[in-house]
Amino acid sequence: MVFDNKLKDPELDRLYAAVLELKTVEECYRFFYDLCTIGELRAMAQRFAVAQMLSEGKSYTDIALATGASTATISRVKRFLEYGADGYRLILERLRRQG
């Protein structure tokens, strides 16, 4: 699938290229700490946890209890899992293969 990215621009290209240069979790912590607010980081981590749990077939109730995510957030993540650009699926599958 070719992704028709309406957000594509040179600044985002540079940001994504920078992320691809990160080699360790420690480097990620350092870079994202400088780049994002703590709230933004926690929100991204929560959405990713929701995606993982949805892909495992967990219920909205279980996900909300485990992550603190609202049902609106869970629904939004589910919509992107089903109809998005397959970014969640790509990463979740790679992580599953790593064990």
Indicate the CATH architecture of the largest domain. Orthogonal Bundle
| CATH-defined topology of the largest domain | Trp Operon Repressor, Chain A
User: Cα distance, first to last residue?
Assistant: 26 Å
What is the CATH H-level superfamily of the largest domain? TrpR-like
DSSP strand count: 0
The CATH class of the largest domain is Mainly Alpha
Largest sheet: none
Structure class? mainly alpha
Hey, roughly how much beta strand do the residues contain? under 5%
How many discrete structural domains? 2
The averaged pLDDT comes out at: 95
Radius of gyration: 15 Å
N-to-C SSE string, H for helix and E for strand: HHHHHH
Q: In which range does the helix fraction lie?
A: over 70%
Contiguous runs where pLDDT drops below 50 for at least 5 residues: none
Outline, from the CA principal axes? globular
Query: What is the count of helical runs?
Result: 6
Description:
The chain is an all-alpha fold and about 100 residues long. It folds into two domains: about 1-35, no CATH class; about 35-99, TrpR-like (Trp Operon Repressor, Chain A). It has six helices and no strands. It has helices spanning about 10-20, 25-35, 40-55, 60-65, 70-85, 85-99. It is globular. The two termini are about 25 Å apart.
